[in-house]
Design a protein that fits this description.
The longest helix has 15 residues. Strand 4 and strand 5 form a beta hairpin. By secondary structure, the protein is mainly beta. The strands form two sheets. A seven-stranded mixed sheet has the order 5-4-9-1-2-3-6, with helices on one face. The protein has a two-stranded antiparallel sheet with strand order 7-8.
Length: 137
Amino acid sequence: MHLDLYRDLSAHGCTLSRLHLAGNFECFVCEDVVRTGPKVWGKTAIPAGTYRVVITFSPRFQTYLPLLLNVPGYQGIRIHSGNSEHQSLGCLLPGQALMPGRVGVLRSRAACASLFAKLKKVEKKEVITLTIHPAAA
């Protein structure tokens, strides 16, 4: 299974994106700001690229969550619920809608539950990958 994350330009302290699953829109995503130059821990979006996704136990969240593997300069990058970049720390936060003013996402738990169910259904049968596409200039 393949996921594509299409980033919009960073604004209002966050980066908003559209996540597509097998070519179909799945949800919006909120993450930290895309920065050029040195990474700032907990405030910089992960680099564009393609990453393998596995479902593992998260000691921080005490549940199973999707984990992105081999993200350069990052560890423990997960897909989990949250509404704004303040809750991201580099992770991807799905949401069913955008907040007014485009400062985050809404209905994140529902978006995570829907996405997680689809990933869980195929994780034992297929390799899951995620391609993060840079924002169009």
